[in-house]
């Protein structure tokens, strides 16, 4: 039995080294298998939502070599938003149709622990009908570091303040050797997984990301996916209420304005193989998101034929990836996103943040 069939049978326990052999299959073989899996789950549906990204500050206590967003020599324009400024952006986003606010920031030493929870309460008070997705596991870890309250207490305070779900940022690559080079001092892979696991036991959903296309190996990517799959399986025990990972999001590294200095960049085939392998391996994570803000709109559409079933959303404004060269700063109009999906032969399904289908467009 060849490797691909062993993986599909889900019987053999294979190592990341062995599974990295999936990359040796041609793109069409992987794509056909991944597409068959996504078609079995969702047919020709491609999901998106109407959302707004808000990034309160770019002043950061940590230094990640891959980051072009944080204020540094590469980006000498520090800013910090007030709660009132954030509320103003939130109201504008809601008036423009946003059903989700995605609030992710730097690790700003000038913001207090209490500031974050006041922000969340004010947002939910002003816009109770909007889904609040906020704080990566890296931010949760940072709040634990500055408060010494424990990440469990941070997550419980998030829940009490009205946070509805967590984004998947801060995962980068789980291999600690790679992390030591690209994001020394940031949340460890073990702690990242513990934070999401505890959030899931509170009955809440989150996403999971992987930053790829920099110094990591194919084996590192496979290891990353397997750790997510194992975490999802462990959290499927009886003590879990309703929480878990909604989606896996492979984020393509953006190479401008940062200190990583990566020379080789993944080919389109390498990107699509990674997405296909994610769909093949992550049988217990429902959705694979082709995040157009890092892949580009055209590649994200093509990825829907290679195992992905989601595009993310309108975003309205994007600061983190665009700082590193992605063409995502102004987001996309809902109509443009719908047109691109339908022109490619798919069904455009507007969803909410938890993947409940709202309307076919």
UniProtKB/TrEMBL annotation:
Q: Sorted alphabetically, which keywords does the UniProt record give?
A: 4Fe-4S, Iron, Iron-sulfur, Menaquinone biosynthesis, Metal-binding, S-adenosyl-L-methionine, Transferase
**GO terms assigned for molecular function:** 4 iron, 4 sulfur cluster binding; 7,8-didemethyl-8-hydroxy-5-deazariboflavin synthase activity; aminodeoxyfutalosine synthase activity; iron ion binding
Signal sequence interval, chain numbering:
none
Q: How is the cofactor bound?
A: Binds 1 [4Fe-4S] cluster. The cluster is coordinated with 3 cysteines and an exchangeable S-adenosyl-L-methionine.
What reaction does this enzyme carry out catalytically?
Answer: 3-[(1-carboxyvinyl)-oxy]benzoate + S-adenosyl-L-methionine + H2O = 6-amino-6-deoxyfutalosine + hydrogencarbonate + L-methionine + H(+)
Q: Which residues bind S-adenosyl-L-methionine?
A: 66, 172
- Name of this protein: Aminodeoxyfutalosine synthase
Identify the cofactor(s): [4Fe-4S] cluster
Role this protein plays: Radical SAM enzyme that catalyzes the addition of the adenosyl radical to the double bond of 3-[(1-carboxyvinyl)oxy]benzoate, leading to aminodeoxyfutalosine (AFL), a key intermediate in the formation of menaquinone (MK, vitamin K2) from chorismate.
The Radical SAM core domain is annotated at 46-286
Q: Which NCBIfam families does the record associate with it?
A: CofH family radical SAM protein, mena_SCO4494, PRK08444.1
One Pfam family cited in the UniProt record for this chain = CofH_C
The annotated pathway is: Quinol/quinone metabolism; menaquinone biosynthesis
Q: Which residues form a coiled coil?
A: none
Protein residues bound to [4Fe-4S] cluster: 60, 64, 67
According to its UniProt record, the EC number is 2.5.1.120
Where, by residue number, does the polypeptide cross the bilayer?
none
Top EC class, one word? transferase
The Swiss-Prot or TrEMBL record describes its family as follows: Belongs to the radical SAM superfamily. MqnE family.
Kindly list the biological process annotations in GO that this record carries: menaquinone biosynthetic process
Species this chain originates from: Helicobacter jaachi
């Amino acid at each position: 039995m060849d490797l691909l069939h062993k993986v599909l049978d889900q019987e053999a326990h294979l190592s990341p080294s062995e599974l990295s052999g999936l990359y040796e299959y041609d793109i069409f073989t992987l794509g056909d298998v991944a597409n068959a899996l996504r078609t079995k789950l969702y047919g020709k549906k491609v999901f998106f939502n109407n959302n707004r990204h808000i990034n309160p500050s770019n002043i950061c206590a940590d230094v990640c070599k891959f980051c072009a967003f944080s204020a540094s020599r590469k980006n000498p324009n520090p800013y910090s938003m007030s709660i009132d400024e954030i509320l103003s952006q939130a109201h504008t986003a809601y008036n423009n149709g946003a059903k989700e606010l995605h609030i992710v920031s730097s690790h700003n030493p000038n913001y207090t622990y209490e500031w974050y929870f006041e922000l969340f309460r004010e947002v939910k008070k002003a816009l109770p009908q909007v889904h609040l997705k906020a704080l990566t596991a890296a931010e949760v870890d940072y709040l634990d570091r500055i408060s010494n309250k424990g990440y469990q207490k941070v997550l419980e305070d998030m829940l009490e303040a009205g946070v509805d779900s967590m984004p998947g940022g801060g995962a980068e690559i789980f291999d600690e050797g790679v992390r030591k080079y690209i994001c020394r001092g940031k949340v460890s892979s073990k702690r990242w997984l513990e934070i999401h696991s505890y959030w899931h036991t509170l009955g809440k959903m989150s996403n999971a990301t992987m930053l790829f296309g920099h110094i990591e190996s194919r084996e590192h990517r496979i290891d990353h996916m397997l750790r997510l799959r194992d975490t999802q399986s462990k959290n499927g025990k009886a003590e879990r209420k309703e929480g878990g990972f909604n989606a896996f999001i492979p984020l393509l590294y953006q190479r401008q304005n940062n200190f990583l200095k990566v020379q080789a960049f993944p080919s389109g085939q390498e990107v699509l193989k990674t997405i296909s392998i994610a769909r093949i391996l992550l049988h217990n994570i429902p959705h694979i998101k082709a995040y157009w803000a890092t892949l580009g709109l055209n590649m994200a559409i093509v990825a829907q034929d290679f195992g992905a079933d989601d595009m993310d959303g309108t975003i309205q404004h994007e600061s983190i990836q665009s700082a590193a060269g992605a063409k995502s700063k102004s987001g996309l109009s809902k109509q443009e996103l719908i047109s691109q999906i339908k022109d490619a032969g798919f069904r455009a399904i507007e969803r909410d943040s938890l993947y409940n289908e709202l309307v076919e467009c």
